[in-house]
Amino acid sequence: MYKYEEEQIMKIPMLMFRDYANPPTTNELCQNLGMSKTTLREGFKRLYGTTIYNYYRKEKLSNAKMMLEKSGMTISDVSLHCGYRSLSHFSSMFKEEFGITPLRYRKNYFATMKYEEGE
Fold this sequence. Notes:
Organism: Aequitasia blattaphilus
Largest sheet: none
Protein name: AraC family transcriptional regulator
Pfam family, one: HTH_18
Structural class: mainly alpha
Keywords: DNA-binding, Transcription, Transcription regulation
InterPro entries: Homeodomain-like_sf, HTH_AraC, HTH_AraC-typ_CS, PchR_regulatory_protein, Tscrpt_reg_AraC-type_HTH
């Protein structure tokens, strides 16, 4: 991979997270970065070890997890903020990624925090 291509591919995460609800398509990324789909996909996988979609999904869910811990937002609001239009889809994706529902995660997180503060 050429240095220029690597620099362009490293811009993808920033481009993906400008608007959680409307990430750019692969075609839009190719057009924006001036490269073919093959170069884009293969280069991204080489640099990040995963596909663009999987990277995007994992980052969205990691952000949601942090928001469940740090914000007072409802789970529904966290879901919408992270680009999920359906709460049930968000919950199933969260559970698939972390092995626990968002509600149970939040309850466990705050129960752990209370326990640690009480010691």
